[in-house]
Amino acid sequence: MSTTDNQLRVGMVGYAFMGAAHSQAWRTVNRVYDLPARARMALICGRDPVKVAEAADRLGWEEHTTDWRELVARPDIDVVDICTPGDSHAEIALAALAAGKHVLCEKPLANSVAEAREMTAAAATARAGGARSMCGFNYRRVPAVALMRQLVADGRLGEIRHVRASYLQDWIVDPQFPLVWRLRKEVSGSGALGDIGAHIIDLTQYVTGQRIAGVSAVTETFVKQRPLPAESSGLAAQVDGAAATGPVTVDDAAIFIARLDGGALATYEATRFATGRKNALRVEINGSLGSVAFDLERLNELEFHDATRPAAEQGFSRILVTESEHPYLSAWWPPGHIIGYEHSFTHQMRDFIEAVATGVDPTPSFADALQVQLVLDAVVRSAELGSSWTEVEPALA
Ligand code: SOE
C-alpha cells in the first residue's frame, strides 16, 4: 500500500455479476465508513476489449486492460480483486501473491483442494512480506448473519444440536436455459454444490464456530443436455435459434447430512431446481437454550426463540436487524430503513480495507476457504461412493 497517499489502488479481474457487485462496494465503502485507507478503483480487466472498456465506464474504473498479468505486474496496484470463474482463481491469485499484492478472491476459492492448498500456502508466504488475503464469502457480512454468530458466541442458544441449511435457486429449471459456464465442470469446478453450497458451508461453520467433520451426500443432474449459449454470459444467457446442445457436467442439486466437530447434526441442500425460490439461503440453528432462523430473501430479519423465557412467552420472535447497535448498520440509515444484497459486499470491502491497512488478517482467510473446499470435495466423493446409501424396496413389488 502506498505510504504517502494512504490509498489502496485496486485492480479487479472480471466484470460480470460479481464484478458489478464488487464495483458497487468499492464505490461506496469509503463514502459510508471512515476507514484508515481509501480504495481507488484504478484498473479493471476483462477478456473482451469492447466490453471491458464499457464496464470501466459503467462501473467507475479509471483504466481498463485485457491482460490480467499486466494488472498484477503494475507497481501502482496494491490489491488484486478476483471476480472470475473458478478455473482462473488459482493462477491469478498465485501470481498476485508472488507480486506482493493483497488479494480478495471470490468464492469458492478454487476448483480443487489441490489448488486451494497451493493458494493457502502462497498466502501464508506472502503474508510474511505484508500481503493480506481474503476469500469473498460475502454473506458473513449480512448484519443478521453476524448477529446470529454473536448470539451463538454469547451462549444465547446454549449447546448447538442442529444446523439446518439450504440455498435454493431456480434459474435453470427451464431445460432451454443454455449451457453457461456455471454448468461446465472444467470452468466452475462443480454446480450448485460449489456455487451456492459453498456459501452455506462457510456460513454455518462461521456462525457455529464448528467445523463439518464428516458428510454423507447425494447429488443429481436433472437436465443433462442444454443448448449452447449465443454468447457466454451469466445467469441470464440467451440462445439463438436451434442451437447445438452440450452436456451439463456438474450437479444441479446436492444434498448432504453432516456431523460438526462440536457434536451438532446438520443437513445441507444446495439446488438450482427449487422452483419459485430465487435466492433463498436459509439457515436454522437449534440449541439447548434457543434457536435462530434466517432467510436471505428477508435479509433484514432474524427469527429468534429464547427457550429461557416463561412458557407463556415461548415461540420465535422477529428481530428487525436495522438498529445502529447491529453489526455494520451504524453507518447506514435509521432503524427500519432496510438494506439489501449489495450492502454485504460493501461490508466485505470495509473489513478488507481495515484489515489490510492495520496489518491484521482478513477473514475468511484462504485457510478458511480451504476448509470449505475440503467439505466440497468430501461431498463429491461421498456422492460418487454412495456407500452410506441403503435402498428401500417398494412395498408392492
Ligand atoms: C449464482 O448462483 C450466484 O450468483 C452465486 O454465484 C453467488 O455466489 C450468490 O451470492 C448468488 O447467486
Automatic annotation (TrEMBL):
Species the sequence originates in: Micromonospora phaseoli
InterPro entries: Gfo/Idh/MocA-like_OxRdtase_N (IPR000683), Gfo/Idh/MocA_oxidrdct_glycsds (IPR050463), GFO_IDH_MocA-like_dom (IPR055170), NAD(P)-bd_dom_sf (IPR036291)
Residue span, GFO/IDH/MocA-like oxidoreductase domain: 146-292
UniProt name for this protein: Predicted dehydrogenase
Pfam families: GFO_IDH_MocA, GFO_IDH_MocA_C3
GO molecular function: nucleotide binding; oxidoreductase activity
Keyword Membrane among record annotations: no
Record key words, sorted: Oxidoreductase
KW Oxidoreductase (keyword) present: yes
Domain Gfo/Idh/MocA-like oxidoreductase N-terminal as annotated: residue spans: 8-126
